[in-house]
Design a protein that fits this description.
The complex is a heterodimer of chains A (159) and B (303).
Chain A (H helix, E strand, L loop, with lengths): L6 E7 L2 E7 L5 H8 L18 E4 L2 E4 L12 E3 L12 H8 L9 H14 L5 H7 L10 H15 L1
Parallel strand pairs in A: 1-5
Antiparallel strand pairs in A: 1-2, 3-4, 3-5
Helix pairs in contact in A: 2-5
Chain B lengths: L4 E3 L4 H9 L5 E4 L5 H6 L7 E4 L9 E4 L2 E5 L4 H5 L2 H6 L3 H5 L5 H4 L4 H7 L7 H6 L3 E6 L2 E6 L4 E3 L2 E2 L6 E8 L5 E8 L10 E9 L6 E9 L6 E2 L1 H7 L6 H14 L10 H24 L4 H5 L6
Parallel strand pairs in B: 1-3, 2-3
Antiparallel strand pairs in B: 4-5, 5-10, 6-7, 6-10, 8-9, 11-12, 12-13, 13-14
Helix pairs in contact in B: 9-10, 10-11
The chains are: A alpha+beta (159), B alpha+beta (303).
Chain lengths: 159, 303
């Protein structure tokens, strides 16, 4: 690989100001994992099909593999590492455990970030809403039903 | 893997300069859902990425009595959440709710969908039905192109080297206007159209006569097709199944699809007619105000 000039990016990452260096063609996912050591976001496909790398960018759900790292200059990024608060699991994380909503676990961070974005947008979704919202998250262990039940359990708990 | 430069200009003029710099291998970036995937897969050679999302004009949603000017980089998510767009151009949401899943919609823009110029793009038949004008900027200045003339071949369009799409201009919807976009896919969502159809109508005040109509079909030719003859055949005709069937026949005749993994030629020809007729029915219902958008949204699986 040619040596590219690195860019310094200042961003709010999981609520704290963060400055990191990246190469211009690195994706946000690569910068999170390789430069910042935040390996919770997973690379399932690297092309926007699977949702395992999902993060919130200014509160909007995006695939971090389809964002170039320099794009997040001055913006707000929340990863799976920022979902739990004050050492307490987020209710979604707790319910994923209770419902055994994971098998291998690779897709789980993306599902939890996506589900958080859903509940931020719509605190009382129907099952149809949940399934449609999560349609861009793939689970190759095919554990969708338990995932949907966990999300609905949190939603019902809210309402 | 080749190193690249990244620049994020804050004005159209700066973007024109950035795209002109270097060896002619600079590419504009909006949502990146096509561009970054192609870059990562090594299918795209470029030396500079010019991020357009810091340019206010590219990110603006501006509605007034003349219509809507939609910045080319505005995401589907922003469109879906714009009450002004939902009120004035509800049929546009048919497309922005269909392009990829939630996280793709968080980034993907209609400008990008148009510039990617896929024959199966879910927004383009809808933009054609809405009589959109494309505003283009480049080293030789600004120009406009009707959206039905924008795509020239799969993945190709009228943009010259150094040019980029700035905005999509939607005329103000006339009274008794309705539109719709439908697509056929073998799954519930998250798929590429086997066929798509966009339609719009303007009805008489009593809702009984079609004053004018536009029909466009996708994934049935090298570019999304504007089927002008189908709209012309509807003009001045009473709203009836016979009238709509005639327009559907014309759409089926206009389709010149290929057979591939998604569908065969006969299936796509058939679907061109069926979807055109259904899209027209919905457009008419919307023009009459007899069906809500939310009700109709379920037709495309996003209720």
């Amino acid at each position: 690989m040619d040596m590219a000039k690195k860019i310094a990016v200042t961003t709010t990452l999981n609520g704290e100001e963060s400055i990191f260096l990246c190469e211009p063609r690195q994706t946000l996912l690569e910068a999170l994992r390789d430069n910042l050591g935040l390996i919770g976001s997973k690379e399932g496909c690297g092309n926007g099909n699977c949702g395992a790398c999902n993060v919130l960018l200014d509160g909007v759900l995006v695939n971090s593999c389809l964002v170039l790292a320099p794009e997040v200059e001055g913006r707000d990024v929340v990863t799976i590492e920022g979902i739990a608060e004050d050492g307490e699991l987020h209710p979604l994380q707790q319910k994923f455990l209770e419902h055994a909503s994971l098998q291998c676990g690779i897709c789980t961070p993306g599902f939890i970030v996506s589900a958080k974005a859903l509940l931020d947008d719509n605190p009382a979704p129907s099952e149809h809403d949940v399934r449609l919202w999560l349609a861009g998250n793939l689970c190759r262990c095919t554990g969708y039903d338990k995932i949907v039940r966990a999300v609905l359990d949190v939603a019902e708990g809210d309402s | 893997m080749q190193a690249i430069d990244f620049v994020a200009p804050t004005s159209v003029d700066e973007a024109i300069s950035a795209l002109a710099a270097g060896s002619g291998m600079a590419r504009p970036l909006s949502g990146g859902t096509d561009l970054i995937a192609q870059l990562q897969e090594g299918r795209l050679a470029l030396d500079t990425v010019v991020d357009l999302k810091r340019i206010p004009e590219l990110m603006a949603i501006s509605i007034n009595s003349d219509g809507l000017t939609l910045g080319a980089s505005v995401s589907c998510h922003s469109i879906n959440n714009s009450q002004a767009i939902r009120d004035a151009y509800p049929a546009l949401i048919d497309s922005t709710h269909l392009i990829g899943g939630t996280q793709i919609q968080g980034r993907a823009s209609l400008g990008g969908n148009l510039c990617n110029s896929s024959p199966a793009a879910d927004s383009i038949p809808n933009l054609i039905a809405h009589s959109v004008t494309c505003h283009i900027a480049g080293p030789s200045g600004r120009r406009t192109v009707p959206v039905e003339e924008f795509c020239t071949a799969p993945g190709r369009n009228v943009l010259e080297n150094g040019e980029f799409l700035v905005a999509l201009e939607f005329p103000a919807p006339p009274a008794n206007f309705g539109a719709a976009y439908l697509r056929f896919i073998p799954r519930n969502e998250m798929d590429i159209a086997v066929v798509g159809a966009g339609a719009s109508v303007v009805l008489s005040d009593d809702g009984s006569t079609i004053q004018s109509a536009r029909v466009s079909i996708g994934a049935v030719a090298p570019t999304p097709l504007f089927v002008q003859e189908a709209g012309d055949a509807l003009a001045g005709q009473p709203v009836s199944e016979e009238t709509l069937a005639k327009a559907a026949d014309l759409a089926r005749d206009a389709a010149r699809p290929i057979s591939d993994m998604r569908g065969t030629i006969p299936q796509r020809k058939h679907l061109s007619g069926v979807l055109t007729q259904r899209a027209l029915r919905i457009a008419i219902d919307r023009a009459r105000g007899t069906k809500t958008v939310d009700e109709l949204g379920r037709l495309n699986g996003h209720g």
